[in-house]
């Protein structure tokens, strides 16, 4: 039977990582991969995480199953982080968290829930979006559509987005990035969130908000603006939260699917369906990452350490964005790439064309995705002069 199976090409990013490894250019720069890097180019374990793990190792007494919804202590810690400590939604008991293997696992739970319990509804993702959104929702059997997000001049196309939302069939699901839009870095302003809310309400759309970078944009609370607005103002919202980036626990697979319903009764009904979907996919989520997050967030001192570390990461990325634009000024290119200074999060749609990306790789050993998406955390004080000179050459 396997004779007929065709091999598919691997993930383009993995190919990029391999090519980078093999490149012998001593000045080579990796702007491709999707993880945070510090000034030395490392993705270290955060101090708060190390401390939490030491405590867990000492105190852990069992490795029995944690149940399809995961650890209640993790849910109790994450819900206020996402929805706000004084959230009226939590006060009303109309939200709950189901722990999942990463944000990806949460998205898959949401997808299977939608396919099974809300059949016939289409799902709308931004164009462009994180490529895995396409695979994930299609694999669950949901009809996938796109709404515009970026215009031809590499700017947020909010008007185009709004016009598209006004034509989405009633009851369909719309996927929104809470902050640090991947791959573009373009985020909605508070005013734009409020405008969008009215259309979503009017057209009775179901928002599925992907919250993979809380704390990487402007701050833990600032980044949650749209999530909290929608959860407080609408009866029904789905939120997928990931702890991969903000706790730096990528390989622990830690996230959750949050259901916000009209009341506690309906929330429990929806939540019960999440457990079914979780059981069918993987039975129980992995425990360790959730235990780390719970250990940190339930201890005010450790939580303060974590917040400081997260602030350091966020500030580094935002500073590098400004320094990148400044370094392009002598080449007369600061205005052309000003968007990089305005975008938020780890990723930037730079506006570099696929041809320019190829030249940067071949002539300078600078690696990024062909869409022109750069991981800003790959910038450093040392390599910015080299990168910006190379960009000036391929613009010449
Ligand atoms: N959504 C978006 C937009 C992402 O960029 C990512 C991570 N690249 C995820 C979800 C999934 O994150 P996780 O590693 O927690 O599965």
From TrEMBL:
Q: Which Gene3D superfamilies match?
A: Aspartate Aminotransferase, domain 1 (3.90.1150.10), Type I PLP-dependent aspartate aminotransferase-like (Major domain) (3.40.640.10)
Co-factor(s)? pyridoxal 5'-phosphate
Transferase as a keyword of this entry, yes or no, is: yes
A Pfam family recorded for this sequence: Aminotran_1_2
As one GO molecular function, the record gives:
transaminase activity
Keywords of the record, alphabetical order, are: Aminotransferase, Pyridoxal phosphate, Transferase
Quaternary structure note: Homodimer.
The entry's protein name is Aspartate/tyrosine/aromatic aminotransferase
């Amino acid at each position: 039977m396997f004779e007929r199976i065709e091999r598919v090409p691997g993930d383009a990013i993995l190919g990029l990582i391999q090519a980078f490894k093999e490149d012998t250019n001593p000045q080579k720069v990796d702007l491709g991969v999707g993880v945070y890097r510090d000034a030395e180019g490392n993705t270290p374990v955060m101090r708060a995480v190390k401390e939490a793990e030491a405590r867990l190792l000492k105190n852990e007494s069992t490795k029995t199953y944690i149940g399809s919804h995961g650890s209640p202590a993790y849910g109790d810690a994450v819900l206020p982080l996402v929805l706000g400590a004084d959230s009226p939604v939590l006060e009303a008991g109309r939200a709950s968290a189901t722990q999942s293997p990463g944000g990806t696992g949460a998205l898959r739970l949401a997808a299977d829930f939608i396919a099974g319990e809300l059949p016939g509804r289409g799902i709308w993702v931004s164009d462009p979006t994180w490529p895995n959104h396409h695979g994930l929702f299609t694999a669950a059997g949901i009809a996938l559509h796109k709404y515009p997000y970026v215009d031809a001049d590499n700017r947020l196309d909010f008007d185009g987005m709004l016009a598209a939302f006004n034509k989405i069939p009633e009851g369909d699901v719309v996927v929104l990035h809470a902050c640090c839009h991947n791959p573009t870095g373009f985020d909605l302003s508070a005013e734009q969130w409020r405008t969008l809310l009215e259309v979503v309400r009017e057209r009775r759309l179901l928002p599925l908000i992907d919250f993979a970078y809380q704390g990487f944009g402007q701050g833990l609370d600032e980044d949650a603006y749209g999530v909290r607005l929608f959860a407080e103002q609408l009866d029904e919202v789905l939120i997928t939260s990931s702890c991969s980036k903000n706790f730096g626990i990528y390989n622990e697979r830690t996230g959750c699917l949050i259901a916000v319903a009209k009341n506690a009764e309906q929330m429990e009904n929806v939540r019960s369906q999440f457990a079914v979907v979780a059981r069918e996919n993987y039975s129980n989520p992995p425990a360790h990452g959730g235990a780390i997050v719970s250990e940190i967030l339930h201890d005010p001192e450790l939580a303060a350490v974590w917040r400081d570390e997260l602030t350091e990461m966020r500030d580094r990325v935002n500073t590098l964005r400004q320094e990148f634009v400044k370094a392009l000024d002598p080449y007369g290119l600061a205005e052309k790439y000003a968007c990089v200074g305005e975008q938020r999060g780890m990723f930037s749609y730079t506006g570099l064309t696929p041809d320019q990306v190829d030249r940067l790789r071949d002539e300078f050993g600078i690696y990024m995705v062909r869409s022109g998406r750069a991981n800003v955390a790959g910038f450093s004080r040392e390599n910015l002069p080299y990168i910006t000179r190379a960009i000036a050459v391929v613009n010449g």
